[in-house]
Write a sequence for this structure.
């Protein structure tokens, strides 16, 4: 099956088996290993990517569902080599520890700030509620998102 | 992990034909892909109906709202037409997480027929109709007749849900929805209670209740609904019906909670309707 879509602003056309998951397409076929597989069944949020700007779980998305769409992965945030303000804020607050959940958290936060540029701490917690982190205890993550929001203003 | 082959139908008629050949309709995949991964289901192929315009709209009809089977929870939550259905919005806003609400659909919630389906609770309260399209004809049946048991529906081979029609409730209904479970997000309810209550001169004029996760399907405890009429929404008055509600439910024990706990929580949730009196 031939599939055309955009990933991180770049048009791609790939030939994939008709039952390919978006997660495997990104990681195995396109080498974009920033997107992580945690639980594989929609409970952890580690594989969150943005499709047309909206958060989606790549483990529960078939490749065919992004035909003609715009996919943003963590690699797309620092495409120019310069870290995105969200990435810098996660580093500055120690919102990153082992790092496995970080790409998903940052992309979910990116979608939140696009919808709501000045969220409250509770709104951040609510929006990131589908992204599990076993290291940070979330405090630094929430702080990072609020900090990035402030920087953007 | 690869999924079964996925085909994209040209139009609704093509989707019906492919479903008739054994294809399983796919929209959000939030439940289906999990079941495929566990091997709980092995359809020969999937039919991706998520982009068929016939399944996508949300619009007002005479006296209600029609929601296409492929409309996502976020689309339903933000559609102007559903502003008149606050009970629907309350329940859908508790589903999964933001990403899952962007993916999952109310049609999928109905076809899954899970007793824990949060989206089913408001549909039972509002008396929604399920509009089904199949090879021979279209038909429409009440959600309570469509859902037969856990994971079992009245869908015949080759049929799929086209849309849901939800009648508007009479003016003045106080909406209530609460689910109980072990965490706040991605929560599969241990028990949930949804309600529409009309109050007049400090007493209940009409009450509709629907409980999730405490019976093989979402349950309307009609005797308790009738017994509520004429009572004030005070904790004391509601407490008199607590045991009646606990015995109306038919829960099972599973990995999330015991049947006995579910029975008790159901009764206790009833007391929380007192929060409507101040609202």
């Amino acid at each position: 099956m031939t599939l055309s879509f955009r990933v991180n602003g770049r048009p791609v056309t790939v030939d994939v088996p008709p039952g390919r998951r978006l997660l495997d397409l990104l990681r195995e076929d396109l080498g974009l290993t920033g997107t992580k597989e945690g639980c594989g069944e929609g409970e952890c949020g580690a594989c969150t990517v943005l499709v047309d700007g909206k958060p989606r779980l790549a483990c529960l998305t078939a490749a065919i569902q992004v035909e003609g769409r715009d996919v943003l992965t963590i690699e797309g945030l620092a495409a120019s080599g310069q870290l995105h303000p969200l990435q810098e804020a996660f580093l500055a607050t120690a919102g990153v520890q082992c790092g496995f959940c970080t790409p998903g958290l940052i992309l979910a936060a990116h979608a939140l700030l696009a919808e709501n540029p000045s969220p409250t701490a509770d709104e951040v917690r609510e929006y990131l509620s589908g992204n599990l982190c076993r290291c940070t205890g979330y405090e630094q993550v929430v702080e990072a998102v609020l900090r990035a929001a402030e920087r953007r203003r | 992990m690869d999924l079964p082959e996925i085909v994209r139908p040209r139009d609704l008629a093509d989707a019906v034909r492919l479903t008739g050949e054994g294809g399983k309709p796919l929209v959000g995949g939030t439940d289906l892909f999990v079941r495929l991964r566990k091997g709980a289901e092995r359809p020969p192929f999937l039919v991706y109906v998520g982009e068929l315009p016939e399944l996508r709209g949300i619009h007002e009809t005479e006296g209600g709202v029609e929601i296409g089977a492929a409309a996502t929870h976020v689309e339903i939550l933000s559609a102007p037409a559903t502003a008149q259905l606050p009970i629907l919005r309350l329940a859908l806003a508790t589903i999964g997480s933001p990403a899952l609400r962007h993916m999952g659909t109310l049609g999928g919630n109905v076809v899954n027929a899970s007793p824990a389906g949060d989206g089913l609770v408001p549909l039972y309260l509002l008396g929604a109709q399920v509009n089904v399209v199949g090879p021979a004809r279209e038909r429409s049946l009440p959600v309570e007749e469509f859902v037969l048991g856990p994971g079992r529906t009245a869908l015949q081979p080759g049929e799929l849900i086209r849309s849901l029609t939800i009648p508007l409730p009479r003016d003045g209904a106080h909406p209530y929805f609460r689910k109980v479970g072990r965490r706040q997000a991605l929560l599969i309810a241990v028990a949930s209670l949804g309600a529409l209550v009309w109050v007049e001169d400090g007493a209940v004029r009409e009450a509709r209740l629907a409980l999730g996760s405490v019976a093989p399907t979402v349950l309307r405890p009609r005797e308790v609904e009738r017994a509520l009429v004429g009572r004030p929404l005070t904790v004391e008055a509601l407490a008199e019906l607590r045991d009646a509600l606990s015995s109306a439910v038919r829960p099972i024990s599973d990995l999330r909670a015991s049947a006995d706990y579910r029975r008790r929580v159901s009764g206790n949730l009833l007391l929380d309707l007192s929060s409507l009196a101040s609202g």
